[in-house]
Specification:
Blueprint: E1 10-21, E2 24-36, E3 41-45, H1 52-60, E4 69-70, E5 73-76, E6 79-80, H2 86-92, E7 97-100, H3 114-125, H4 130-143, H5 149-152, H6 162-174, E8 180-184, H7 192-209, E9 212-216, H8 220-226, E10 229-234, E11 237-243, H9 244-249, H10 254-259, E12 311-314, E13 317-320
Parallel strand pairs: 3-9, 3-10, 7-8, 8-9
Antiparallel strand pairs: 1-2, 1-4, 1-5, 5-6, 10-11, 11-13, 12-13
Helix pairs in contact: 3-4, 4-6, 6-7
The structure holds adenosine-5'-diphosphate (ADP) and magnesium ion.
């Protein structure tokens, strides 16, 4: 089953993350598959708690102590990430794959200058001089739209605004020209106009550098503009994956349609609203988890949803539902009150 495309830079098959908790095992990520080719952008969408961050941390080898991911395949450019040693992962990170986090202060060290932090990875990983690393830092600060770049090098993170810190984070992630960048809700902490600017910037830099990118975002407008492929996560599973055009033209899982507001769910939000507006709660993923996790909120739920859920695929577009059309044929057009 583990067929993975030759030209993928990242292939993941059956990634599973179980977390031991006081009340039992939390099945936080449950057998997800995806591939990414060089230069492609995959957007992962899904509401809070669906396992998006754990998935990216697993790829980066950054899951916390005591959390061990399992996968049939987790391969980056021919390197088996499931068996790679800590040292090898450390040298991959920052050099060939890097991550941008939601909150820059979790990755910027308040005790070091911007310049030291920007040049550190390059000095560790690259065969380079201090002067060359400094020049690269200035170049990237300019690229991410920071003025007076040179004078920023001697500043400390607390001297910068949130927007500038996020730009510094992006510059830092790009220092070694990685092949893969993972951006986990990189702009959520910023105000809306700055969010748009920064995402555009990220996309432009990605194109220019030919990087593959995984972008985790809550904003479907961003997905439509930026993604080549979309993966919709719910309750630790990928409920639907496909090319962006396919997902928007023919959203097939009821959850995806709920996100896109194509189906009349109770209390539905306005078109274009942010994710997480579908009423109801995600079932516990602790202990024995069976059936479709979305059934507690799905307008089409029936007893069969408690059993095994088949996967329906049409080329690269795939989804899981007991109904081969995801009940799309039963959706009623919206009735005006
Ligand atoms: P997302 O990024 O989609 O919001 P996460 O990947 O952060 O979701 O988390 C998925 C689930 O795993 C959530 O229920 C979260 O509470 C849980 N989780 C994440 N990290 C840990 C951890 N270190 N210990 C216990 N539970 C965790
Ligand atoms: Mg997250």
């Amino acid at each position: 089953m583990s067929h993975t495309p030759q030209d993928a830079i990242l292939s993941v098959r059956n990634l599973t993350i179980d977390i031991p908790t006081d009340t039992g095992t939390l099945h936080a990520v449950r057998g997800i598959d995806f591939d990414l080719k060089p230069g492609q952008t995959l957007c992962i969408v899904g509401e809070s708690g669906s396992g998006k961050s754990l998935t990216s941390l697993a790829v980066m080898g950054l899951l916390g102590r005591g959390i061990k991911p399992r996968a049939d395949v987790m391969r980056f450019d021919g390197i088996d990430l499931t068996t790679a040693r800590k040292r090898q992962l450390r040298s991959l990170r920052g050099a060939r794959m890097s991550m941008i986090f939601q909150e820059p202060m979790t990755s910027l060290n308040p005790a070091y200058t911007i310049g030291d932090q920007l040049t550190e990875a390059m000095l560790i990983h690259g065969n380079t001089t201090r002067d060359a690393a400094r020049a690269r830092a200035i170049e990237l600060l300019q690229k991410v739209g920071i003025t007076a770049a040179e004078s920023r090098l001697t500043q400390y993170p607390h001297q910068l605004s949130g927007g500038l810190r996020q730009r510094v984070m992006i510059a830092m992630a790009l220092m070694c020209s990685p092949d893969l960048i993972i951006a986990d809700e990189p702009t959520t902490a910023l105000d809306v106009t700055i969010q748009a600017q920064i995402l555009r910037l990220l996309k432009d830099l990605q194109r220019e550098m030919g990087m593959a990118m995984i972008l985790i975002t809550h904003d479907l407008g961003v997905v439509a503009r930026i993604a080549d492929k979309v993966a919709v996560m719910y309750g630790g599973e990928l409920v639907e994956t496909g090319d962006t055009a396919q997902i928007f033209a023919k959203p097939s899982h009821p959850y995806t349609r709920g996100l896109l507001n194509c189906i009349p769910l109770p209390g539905r939000a306005e078109r274009g609203a942010k994710l997480g507006t579908i009423p109801g709660i995600v079932p516990s993923l602790v202990g024995d988890v069976q059936g479709c996790a979305f059934r507690t909120r799905c307008p089409h739920a029936r007893p069969a949803c408690r059993g095994d859920i088949p996967r329906h695929a049409d080329g690269d577009h795939a989804f899981r539902c007991i109904d081969p059309q995801g009940f799309a044929h039963t959706d009623q057009p919206e009735v005006q009150p």
